[in-house]
Amino acid sequence: MRTLLACSAFALLVGQSAVAEDSSATQASLDANAVAIASATSYTPISAGTMLDVSTAASTQLASNAVELTSGTLEQHGYKISRDAPYALDVIAVLVRGVGQDQGVQQPTQGSVRGDEYTNADKNPSTDPLTQGNLFDSSRGALLTPAEPQQGGHLLRVSLSVYDRKSGLYVWRGQVERDTLNVDVDSSMQQMVPALLAHFGQSLPQTEVPLH
């Protein structure tokens, strides 16, 4: 009996280890596929060491974090941050949450109660449907064949715009966004903003930024 229990315990431990390894491998595979897309347009060259005023019009914590990360990264690149700077850098950071699977699915409503003259109080024709609603059309989200759940995760987008305070014209604009559930918001932000600012002042076609 003791031998049997020992063997069972060992098998359980091996099984748990295998499950943990499979889980880690699956997570690693998911993370390897997570990417952000960065792009930017340069209108006027920005000299090295230029003074910038980095701010946001939003009062969210997400926007504040983006401002702090943007300022710190630009300072690491040799730029100066000041409220009196000739160039203003506007930061917009938004998180658009995914649409639930059940959104758009029609709910049934009771129609006529078919029957004889005693039970059909509404005196509706016997051809009236018992229920009204979308039962099968999956393109619109049906009761029996629901719409497919959204495959993407939360759409995180950070947009940076630099303009000349004297002329009011844009000098540089950049954007980076990701739509995934595999990497959390904080980790994504810490990778996305520096990746975009690595091309600060330069034009950048749509470029993938691997996230991990």
**Mean pLDDT, nearest integer?**
77
Q: What is the correct CATH architecture of the largest domain?
A: 2-Layer Sandwich
How many DSSP H or I helices? 3
Radius of gyration equals 28 Å
Spatial sequence of strands, sheet with the most strands? 3-2-4-7-8-1-9
Strand content of the residues, in percent? 25-35%
The percentage helix is 25-40%
N- to C-terminal distance: 48 Å
Parts with pLDDT < 50 across at least 5 consecutive residues: 8-14, 17-31, 100-119
Q: What count of structural domains?
A: 2
Largest sheet: 7 strands, mixed
CATH class of the largest domain reads Alpha Beta
Helix/strand structural class: alpha+beta
Instruction: Spell the H/E element sequence.
Output: HEEHEEEEEEHE
Query: What is the strand tally?
Result: 9
What fold name stands as the CATH topology of the largest domain? Answer: Double Stranded RNA Binding Domain
Shape: globular
Question: Key features?
Answer:
212 residues, alpha+beta, Double Stranded RNA Binding Domain, 9 strands, 28% helix, 27% strand, globular
Topology, pairings included?
Layout: H1 2-32, E1 35-42, E2 51-55, H2 61-76, E3 80-81, E4 87-96, E5 109-110, E6 131-132, E7 154-164, E8 170-180, H3 185-197, E9 204-210
Parallel strand pairs: 2-3, 2-4
Antiparallel strand pairs: 1-8, 1-9, 4-7, 5-6, 7-8
Helix pairs in contact: 2-3
Describe this structure in words.
The protein is an alpha+beta fold. The protein folds into 2 domains: 33-98 and 152-210, Double Stranded RNA Binding Domain, CATH 3.30.160; 108-149, no CATH class. Helices cover 28% and strands 27% of the residues. The protein has 3 helices and 9 strands; from the N terminus they run αββαββββββαβ. α2 (61-76) links the parallel β2 (51-55) and β3 (80-81). The longest helix has 31 residues, at 2-32. The model is unreliable at 8-14, 17-31 and 100-119 (pLDDT under 50).
